[in-house]
Specification:
This protein is of the alpha+beta class. The protein contains 7 helices and 10 strands.
Length: about 270
């Protein structure tokens, strides 16, 4: 399996909180989350968390022992939680956390695991691309943000309601009926979206962080088959370049999404030994 990757920080002067890496037969992508200015909660920060967790995952995947992916993730979450439990308030809702996406080729199959809203695109030999994501966070965010509909931005009422929406979303994190993300509790790994496909059924595999997936939605620059075509012709960097171009065009729109870290990993030759 050959893996090419590209990543870009969303804003200058801030660390890139995404992480991508690969070992023979496996690749991981993490999209970090947290709130800037919360050093009193965790002295390390989100980028530290994603890099430590990503490295721990790669170290275990490199053993190629076929261990269950959810078990690998649970062990890694527990390890990193132990690394900073003594110095940081890791149970605080704003402490560092991350989405997780893992793919692994093992014994003729491609195993995958997703926790929260990154995107896995499987280039199937027959039937076109299959897109897999964990939609629970998006669903929870949509539900919790509903009270903001129709409230004018920039008003005191908007700010007040938005704060209550944020608190409501935090209350659903790593809870039944809410959504799950890698943070301080290894049990979140048990809730990951997992699956497995025969390697001969796949031509390639793409992993995209939420920031990179904007090329499809909301920017609508292409569809998922088009993403695979762009990866074949221009590689992961071309996806990110187009996202940044779209962001630049709408940068003066007050309703435009804030630029996000964007990362893509493209795995080709997945059926090769």
């Amino acid at each position: 399996m050959r893996v090419s990757m590209a990543t870009s920080a969303g804003r200058a002067g801030r660390p890139n909180e995404d992480f991508a890496g690969a070992v023979p037969g496996a690749a991981v992508l993490l999209d970090g989350a947290g709130i800037p200015g919360t050093e009193s909660i965790c002295c390390h920060g989100v980028a530290w968390y994603t890099h430590r967790l990503g490295g721990a995952l790669l170290g275990r995947l490199a053993r190629d022992d076929g261990r269950d992916l959810a078990d690998i993730l649970a062990t890694a979450i527990g390890e990193i939680a132990a690394d900073h439990r003594g110095t940081c308030d890791i149970t605080h809702p704003s402490s560092p956390q991350a989405t997780v996406l893992i793919v692994r080729a093992h014994r003729g199959r491609l195993d995958h695991l997703l926790l929260a809203d990154s995107f896995l695109v499987l280039d199937q030999v027959r039937g076109g691309p299959r897109v897999i994501t964990d939609e629970r966070e998006v669903t929870a965010r949509r539900t919790c943000s509903a009270p903001l509909d129709g409230v004018p931005r920039g008003t005191a009422e908007y700010d007040r309601i938005r704060e209550s929406c944020v608190e409501a979303l935090r209350a659903r994190r790593n809870r039944p009926g809410g959504y799950w993300i890698a943070k301080d509790d290894p049990r979140a790994a048990e809730e990951a979206v997992t699956g497995s496909l025969p390697l001969p059924d796949l031509g390639s595999v793409a992993l995209l962080s939420n920031g990179a997936s904007r090329i499809v939605s909301p920017y609508g620059l292409t569809d998922w088959p088009g993403v695979l075509e762009l990866l074949d012709t221009g590689g992961p960097a071309d996806i990110i370049r187009r996202v940044r171009q779209a962001e630049a065009l709408i940068s003066t729109d007050p309703d435009a999404p804030v630029p996000d870290d964007a990362t893509v990993a493209h795995c080709t030759g997945v059926s090769l030994p």
